[in-house]
Amino acid sequence: MIPDAWSALRGLSARPADDAGLINTTLTVGEPPRYIAQRVHPLFAPSVHDDIEAVTVHLASRGRVTPRLVRTDEGGLWARDPEGGVWRVMDFIPGRTLHRIPSPAVARDAGALVARFHEAVDDLVHDYRHVRPGAHDTGLHMQRLEGTLTQNVVTEEGREREGVDTGGRQNTVQGEGRAVAEAILDAWRTWQGRLDLPERHCHGDLKISNIRFSASGEALCLVDLDTLARYPLDVELGDAWRSWCNPVGEDSLEPRFDLEIFEAAVAGYLSVRPFRPEEREALAGAAERIALELSARFCRDVFEDSYFGWDSRRFASRREHNLYRARGQLALACSARQQRQRIAEVLAR
């Protein structure tokens, strides 16, 4: 239940958003929608709203379209419900959400939007209050997966010694998950690239569904701002290209890295902001790296069964959905690796 802290919402209907993400509970408020209300996942501390406010105020001052937090009647950026959950309300930006890029023209527009965002925040002076250490530390995610894998093996061996039945679908899924985990870890050991770009202001989660588009396909603004932080550019754009250049979406076992979409996205970005030589070098392996990172995170949740949302209409459990996602992102990483030379050539133009 949305807390009664915003008088502007009183009397308005609320329903689950058509394009809710995997983490926060998201409602549209009003008909037609006027606001977005979200119950924020405990992963994000309330201080994240100070960061959202600082960045969106700055963007608005530069004339950029951006959703803005709606303050409570008492002037706060968020409020708690009776159960202690944190809620926020933001402006609703009319438009649509895409889960895959339908054409190079849309990719080019998305690339240009991200470059305009980066350009607008280049002079932002802000120390982020909500910091998630290691959020895109790929090596750390691999260590965590390896540790989870080791713990799972130890646990299963202990259950067998105690005579506990280890059969059933859950254990079959975990067994398949162990094989995928080993493949992910092996791919990371053989990945080649640099990891030393400086940090800059970034959105932090540029999957295509976090860009709001107009009905005609124009990229309007970035949404889902909980991940605002300082990251290297290769993390930011590697995550974008991992999402944008996969024409079949995350829930597929047959993804491919689409070079035509990639070329258009790069061209759009470069139409606004150039890459430095060291950025071009780091960006060549960025999409593969972030796909491996996300694959590792999905695979870890096969065993821990605690983080990502899942589709109960298509899968019997969160574990099964995450196993499916992990396989898909691993396949995408392999596709990007196979085209590494051509990716580098596009970046070198």
Summarize the model shown.
This is Aminoglycoside phosphotransferase domain-containing protein. By secondary structure, the protein is an alpha+beta fold.
Under CATH, the topology of the largest domain can be stated as Aminoglycoside 3'-phosphotransferase, Chain: A, domain 2
Q: Average pLDDT value?
A: 92
- Poorly predicted runs are 157-166
Helical run tally? 10
C-alpha geometry: globular
Helix-and-strand structural type: alpha+beta
Q: Distance between the terminal alpha carbons, to the nearest Å?
A: 52 Å
| Rg of Cα set | 21 Å
Main sheet: strands, sense, barrel: 5 strands, antiparallel
Give me the CATH superfamily of the largest domain.
Aminoglycoside phosphotransferase (APH), C-terminal lobe
User: How do the helices and strands follow one another from N- to C-terminus?
Assistant: EEEHEEEHHHEEEEHHHHHH
Count of discrete domains: 2
CATH architecture of the largest domain: Alpha-Beta Complex
Strand order of the largest sheet: 1-2-3-5-4
Number of strands: 10
Organism: Chondromyces crocatus
Protein name: Aminoglycoside phosphotransferase domain-containing protein
Pfam families: APH
InterPro entries: Aminoglycoside_PTrfase, Kinase-like_dom_sf, Pseudomonas-type_ThrB
Fold and architecture overview:
Helices cover about 45% and strands about 10% of the residues. The chain is of the alpha+beta class and about 350 residues long. The chain folds into 2 domains: about 5-95, Phosphorylase Kinase, domain 1 (2-Layer Sandwich); about 95-130 and about 190-345, Alpha-Beta Complex (Aminoglycoside 3'-phosphotransferase, Chain: A, domain 2), CATH 3.90.1200. The strands form 3 sheets. A 5-stranded antiparallel sheet has the order 1-2-3-5-4, with no helix packed on it. It has a 3-stranded antiparallel sheet with strand order 6-8-9. It is globular, with a radius of gyration of 21 Å.
